[in-house]
Design goal:
Helix content is 40%, strand content 16%. It is of the alpha/beta class. The longest helix has 24 residues. The model has no long low-confidence stretch (mean pLDDT 97). Bound molecules: 4'-deoxy-4'-aminopyridoxal-5'-phosphate and glutamine.
């Protein structure tokens, strides 16, 4: 990537996010956008009505620094209800501008310059940039698909070797974007054991906590000895299909929350006053909402998966998230970036090359990510275009 003038050395190489680039390509070419991860329908009407009511009520000035009390209580209730986590709404919850700010504020607050942050490679794109902004060093541990099952896993010895006196944090995302992996209890036990052994804090990005199709979501903070050394991060964007509202949160011990709030208050200070009460309504929706949400997305996963298979792709079915990965090497392709740049013209569809999420130079070269959080007719139309282009 060319050097950008003015940009400091820490951020050289980060360029424009792949999501902005691919959504712009979709807009320019009129292709169906299965690249950037966002749903093409709104979330629950009672949640959007709550935001509109809040604006009408005049909740339009700065909300309290840690988030409104009502939302903090709703987050604490949610952690108890779904994950049996007992959380103090006043001292252990911080509302942020999306999960993105929670991650950035955590890294900025907890890392010294030169510290190492362990991540599973590939990672969501903001991790490497936020680690760089904090002056820390990224220490990747590779996730690779099992050749038989397509399930992503890692080498426990590689994870163990990544921990050292230089390790400040491990930043873990489950369910995992872009691979769709849901970390197993055994894998999380090993992470917890290493965190305890090396006195390392874990930061878990759980934005897809309600999108698990295989296995079950297990917050790392619920494992023995981990509540006091884990920052659990999530947001309302995915769970309630309002990705533009950017209401996120961090849950951790009062000491960790105090540290993270110190950084957060100088990033955005606060955000989304009328959206905070609305996300509180969402968090308190009945089980029927959550059950329907995951059932609906499972159907979409299966629909897109079968269309991609019909088009000739090798599909790695995700256990969670709303992304499906395909391996294009079976189509005789060797470069996901070139493939995705040509895909609008070739098939009228936009996807994201998983390569851009990797630190490893070659591991993700032939992996391509499609988002299935779209209306069924959109998935069918995209699938048909891919079938016509590749299997016609
Ligand atoms: N983490 C992961 C794994 C994501 O996929 C995303 C994208 N939504 C985010 C964090 C960012 O979440 P938010 O929009 O709440 O900042
Ligand atoms: N999380 C979404 C994705 O992975 C996109 C978020 C963004 O555009 N930054 O596609």
């Amino acid at each position: 990537m060319p050097r950008l003038p003015h940009l400091n050395a820490r951020l050289q190489g980060f360029g424009t996010t792949i999501f902005a680039e691919m959504s712009a390509l979709a807009a320019k070419t009129g292709a169906i956008n299965l690249g950037q991860g966002f749903p093409d329908t709104d979330g629950p009407a009672e949640v959007s009505a709550a935001a509109i009511e809040a604006i009408g009520r005049g909740e339009n000035q700065y909300p309290p620094g840690p988030g409104t009390a009502d939302l903090r209580h709703a987050i604490a209730e949610h952690q108890q209800r779904f994950w049996s986590m007992t959380v103090d709404a006043d001292t252990e919850v911080l509302v942020t501008a999306g999960a993105t700010e929670a991650i950035a504020a955590t890294l900025l607050a907890l890392c010294e310059v030169g510290d190492e942050v362990i991540v599973f490679d590939p990672t969501y794109d903001s991790y490497a940039a936020s680690i760089a902004m904090a002056g820390a060093k990224i220490r990747p541990v590779l996730l690779s698909p099992d050749p038989e099952t397509g399930r992503y896993g890692f080498d426990p010895a590689e994870l163990r070797a990544a921990f050292s006196a230089r390790t400040r944090l491990i930043l873990l995302n489950t369910p995992h974007n872009p691979t769709g992996k849901v970390f197993t209890p055994g894998e999380l036990e090993l992470v917890a054991e290493l965190c305890r052994e090396h006195d390392v804090v874990a930061v878990t990005d759980e934005v897809y906590e309600h999108l698990v199709f295989e296995g079950a979501h297990l917050p790392l903070a619920t494992l023995p000895g981990m509540a006091e050394r884990t920052v659990t991060i999530s947001s309302g964007g995915k769970t309630f299909s309002f990705t533009g509202w950017k209401i996120g949160w961090a849950v951790a011990s009062p000491q960790l929350i105090n540290a993270i709030r110190t950084a957060k208050q100088f990033l955005t200070f606060v955000n989304g006053a009328p959206f905070q009460p609305a996300i509180a309504v969402g968090l308190r929706l009945g089980d029927d909402y959550y059950d329907r949400f995951v059932a609906d997305l499972r159907t979409k996963r299966d629909l897109l998966g079968s269309l991609l298979i019909d088009a000739g792709f090798t599909v790695l079915a995700p256990e969670g998230t709303y992304f499906t990965t395909v391996d294009i090497s079976s189509m005789g392709e060797s470069d996901g970036i070139g493939f995705c740049l040509g895909l609008p013209e070739r098939a009228g569809v936009v996807a994201v090359p998983s390569q851009v999420f990797y630190q490893h130079p070659t591991a993700g070269r032939t992996m391509v990510r499609f988002c299935f959080a779209k209306r069924d007719e959109v998935l069918r139309a995209a699938g048909q275009r891919l079938i016509d282009a590749f299997a016609g």
